[in-house]
Amino acid sequence: MLRKNDPTPVVVEKWLTDFEQALAAPNDAGLRALFRPDCHWRDVLALTWTIQTLGGRDTVVSALKQWAARARPKGFRIAENRTPPRRVTRVGTDTIEALLAFETDGGWCDGVVRLTEDGGAPQAWTLLTSLDQIKGHEEQFGRTRRQDKVYSRDFRGPNWLDQRKASVEYADRDPAVLVVGGGQAGLSIAARLTQLQIDTLIVDRWPRIGDNWRRRYHALVLHNQTHVNHLPYMPFPPTWPNYIPKDKIATWFEAYVDSQELNYWTGTDFEGASYDEAQGRWTITLPHADGTMRQLRPRHVVMATGASGIPVLPDIPTLKNFRGTVIHSSQYEDGEAWKGKSALVIGTGNSGHDIAQDLHSAGANTTLVQRGSTMVVQVEPGAQLPYTLYDEGPPLEDCDLITVSVPLALAKKSHIAMTEQAKKLDQLLLDGLARRGFRLDFGDDRAGWQFKYLTRGGGYYFNVGCSDLIVTGEIGLIQFSDIAEFVADGARLRDGNVLKADLIVLATGYKGQEALMRKLFGDAVATRVGSIWGFGDGQELRNMFVRTPQPGLWFIAGSFAQCRIYSKYLALQIKASEEGLLPAD
Ligand SMILES: Cc1cc2nc3c(=O)[nH]c(=O)nc-3n(C[C@H](O)[C@H](O)[C@H](O)COP(=O)(O)OP(=O)(O)OC[C@H]3O[C@@H](n4cnc5c(N)ncnc54)[C@H](O)[C@@H]3O)c2cc1C
Hints:
The protein is about 30% helix and about 25% strand. The protein contains 16 helices and 25 strands.
């Protein structure tokens, strides 16, 4: 923390002044002197109109020069009224971390620089440049809030409620943006777009807003603490508990839609769309649950469908011998019906564990069947370690900016350290699981659950009790390789015994977004767009929160925090596209 007479702000101000001058200078020498050889630059729309991370001084300096020539950044300074520059340790490195502000020809921007001194002049280790507002299209809030009329000669004219009803009907117009999916991803992007005065409609197949949470298992509370899970603009009340129960968040979603004036059609299944290149519009026919049909022609479709895509149903030839009930985890609703019966749950990710625990709690004799090694982390404190920053004091917006400013390579190092820390904290439980024959892993390069999530969307379990029940033997555990074949009344094991079952749940996950895109938009669009989510060889999630190769098609997904943070940048790009400000390249 900064103390009185601390020279830190002076050091930062000097670096920023030198940086601005060096950016405008005709050669690279000045700029090179300001960066460490192992530096990283992440730009989030400010200079490049995309999200990209570059590493290494030569690459960073030449790219900064190139993009600065177009965007013409200026006015670099320490951000006013935000967390002041601080000396902190990030990924084991002592650094001065400063939130900054600047502008380009088109935008009001912010960012974060981390300087290290290493005995010489301060040099940048990491630099984030990010777009905050588009000039001339600023969000309207606080003192610039929307100016509705207070005075009216006609008291019977359409009031707010009449206008909201007309707005959501779309009787005589098309939305500019159709958002498919009304979970946290859909709500976040719709709220941001609505704030930017982009006409946006959410459609969701569930009959009631919040059903995506309401219909999950009985005991569910969110896994992350309340202070990291806020939606944009409308933080949860400070009186709320640290872990939000599912029905509470579902009800909040309803209130959020009302409060943020979001247009939302429930009971509406999105079954596909075709794109008219000449018109720059999608044609979409939407069947409602009541049997009626509507055709819409939005310019943009944002896919916010989460994991609820296409279930993976593994090819297990002998499963056809089984005479009991077989369901995919997506079809599982409640354990009550299985009281006193026996169940096998195949798959040891979060869903498999949660369903096994729900069945066990309902009085079913339950066995988990493990197919691949799985990471297990205690939901508290291990799974909360990545969010420590949000408990350190800076306001939410500053924590979000600091989170965005960490380049992938450093994030990975930090997660390797956190995985090691969580492993130590959880050692007793992990030893108990290992004794039961549970096969544990800690992710590729031991980078833990966050990287499993970002690369494959699963492969881990936050223990909320099921692991303890496995350790005590109350929930059984076998390996899939222990099963010789499925038979009419269960699974015959290699030792000849039959493990009886009335129910088999395939908690075997979902196909990736590519498969869903292929189904909904066809082969040509799927091929054009390519991979979605995961990093491939790059340092950013593929086709997430940015322009895809298919005009008018966008994707958003992730945790509450990711959706809150990146919905802002996705909305800014759509706004820029609508205003003709998004450059072609
Ligand atoms: C027990 C548990 C605890 C969790 N805790 C947290 C936590 O604390 N913090 C956190 O960040 N994450 C948490 N998660 C993980 C994750 O954030 C959620 O799974 C979340 O639901 C993802 O949100 P989403 O909006 O991307 O997708 P979803 O919530 O799955 O919403 C997608 C919506 O799209 C709709 N849809 C899909 N396809 C179509 C279609 N073709 N037409 C119309 N509608 C469609 C669906 O009906 C659904 O409502 C938790 C998950 C579980 C299971």
